[in-house]
Specification:
- By secondary structure, the chain is of the alpha+beta class.
- The chain is built from eight helices and 19 strands.
- It has two domains: 66 residues, Alpha-Beta Plaits (2-Layer Sandwich); 209 residues, Ribonuclease Z/Hydroxyacylglutathione hydrolase-like (Metallo-beta-lactamase, Chain A).
- Helix content is 31%, strand content 22%.
- The strands form five sheets. It has a seven-stranded mixed sheet, covered by helices on one side.
- Helix 6 links the parallel strand 9 and strand 10.
- This is Metallo-beta-lactamase domain-containing protein.
- InterPro entries: Metallo-B-lactamas (IPR001279), RibonucZ/Hydroxyglut_hydro (IPR036866).
Length: 334
Amino acid sequence: MAAATAPTSFHIRRSFNYNANLQNSFRKVRSVKARSIITANSLRAPRPQNVSGEFFVDHTCIDCDTCRWMAPENFTRAGDMSAVFKQPSCEEERLRALQALLSCPTSSIHTEKPPHDILEVQKTFPIPIDEHTLPGVYHCGYHSDKSFGAASYLIVRAEGNILVDSPRYTTQLENNLKMLGGARYMFLTHSDDVADHEKWSNHLGCERILHSLEVDHSTAAVEIKLEGSGPWSLSDDVTLVHTPGHTEGSVCLLYKPRNILFTGDHFAMGERGWTIFERYNKLSVPKQLNSVKLMLDLDFEWILPGHGRRAKFKDVEEKNSSLRAFLETKMQLL
């Protein structure tokens, strides 16, 4: 056996340099982790635009507008994010603020202390749109960051309930939906707003509907793929209308018994009036405007969008007058 040799000065220096470099690397990793923690903590800190009190919005807000239309008495836009401009002053306002908190897609709304009644608030979902004029139509809440904070809806009907687009999956919402009869179908307006569609399909056993032009690897298993340009009848009371523009396969759902058009991201009321979300258009603005024209021939008085705010017309004549004015203004800008 060969005799062991003493380490040379070169080996000693190399070993020392290696250990020193390793220690420096560890210090750098710890420093990066520390900065990440500090950054994460600072992002979750209250924005200075919030008024003091129980509720606040942090710096992770994506400006999806959800809290501002769910609880307009308390939330507003400040800069390019939301903020609390007035704390809830009654139980009804506080309930809506907590519903907005649970619906926030990025969990950007907080309370100073854990709310004692949050479990009771969870039971209020899905929320009726209008119990008097739209019985059986609900806002699911629990918006998902996977769909950039889009709203989803439940239609309760004897022929089988319909989920319109996908909320964020939670077991509490699943239980609440099952108490209302679950869902026979999940209608997906377009590829942007599919969120947790697979989980909902697995848990509720609902068939998913999506235009074939919107299908990708994440939705390849969708049960019903629409082909062509429609329209398609799901039943006597439900018509699906192809409205290309925002995306090539965008489709709206017309629910005839309640005169509602579920528009996805095709058309909505924004904070400053009607919008087709030109900034996020993936196909063609002129084509989208042509699809808006198709809405003139549809009989509805409510618009329930994915992004944007819901709208109610007095009658079909008011709806058409409003759409024509929007189209005239937009056409002049092309």
